[in-house]
Amino acid sequence: MSEVFREVKVRDWLLAGALTLLGLLLMILDITTTDAEYARSIAEGSAYHLPDSRSPWMIPVFLAAFVPVLWWRRSVLVVSGIALAVMVLHDLLFGWVTRCGAGLPLAFVLAFLGAMAYPRTKAWLACGLTALLAAAVVVVDATTGPDPLLLALPIILIVFGIGRAARHRGLLNEQLKIRDAELRQLRDQRAALAVADDRDRLSHQLDGLLQERLAQLTAAAESADGLPPAQAKAVLESIESGSRQTLEDMREIIGLLRGGEVDLAPAPTVAHLGALLARHRSARSRLTVTGDPRSLPAAVELSAYRIV
């Protein structure tokens, strides 16, 4: 049972329910209206023919044309065909009764749904079925007779045209959504290519920096050979300073190469050891600080923190 109603949406229930209720009220009116009331209406010109039947079986047979509207999303053609067959059966079984008050709205709704649901050929086939349905509704209608068919057919064509326009607009909206998604994808791909190009450029920059700095440090180390101790110490200190600067530059460029993984928070230092100890306190952990704190190179601060 759940499979039968799985594709039925709330608005389908509302649509089919409204049409079915209209048909129910119309059939009840057919059954309860007397011949004298019909004769008076005919004399006044508001009715066309006396009813041939007041059987209560008119109600379920008539409503069988409306309930299938619930499943119009599966096939409007099938729903229209069922409605047409049921209406013809109703004509044959009960003859002259009033059907137009609910049958014509059913035909108009199915014409619109068929225009919305199908491409051109099937849509026109659905339109033809609804025109036949309208004819079956009024051909033996006790209130109007067959004359309103000349008015109902143009209305069906107008409703059909509105449905085609709505379908065309819906298709355009779908195409715009697809085009928008494609443009977004192209934009993301272009951004990814730009990022890859930037990373390639930074990678070459890193390689060039390393080659240049290593050449400078090698030349400095070779120049220290044979120098007095004081001068050699100065050269070695400059080599140490240059090495640390090279390390800092490398860290910065590698951070850029990592893209979204870059941690922009400040690098931890020796001053953060107290917080580290508080997070990992145990019976054997302790921290003793002696002397006056002073600033150290960033690489030394980070290395000390990581060692601890």
Topology:
Elements: H1 10-32, H2 35-44, H3 58-63, H4 76-94, H5 100-117, H6 120-138, H7 149-223, H8 229-257, H9 273-279, H10 298-307
Helix pairs in contact: 1-5, 4-5, 4-6, 5-6, 5-7, 6-7, 7-8
What would you report as the Rg, rounded to the nearest angstrom? 43 Å
Order of helices and strands: HHHHHHHHHH
For the biggest sheet, the summary is: none
Decide which structural class fits the backbone. Answer: mainly alpha
Describe the structure.
21% of the residues are buried. This protein is mainly alpha-helical and 308 residues long. Helix content is 70%, strand content 0%. The protein has a domain of 138 residues. Helix 5 packs parallel to helix 7 and helix 7 runs antiparallel to helix 8. It contains ten helices and no strands. About 2% of the residues have low confidence.
Summarize the structure.
The chain is mostly helical and 308 residues long.
Could you list some keywords that capture this structure?
rod-shaped; 308 residues; 70% helix; mainly alpha
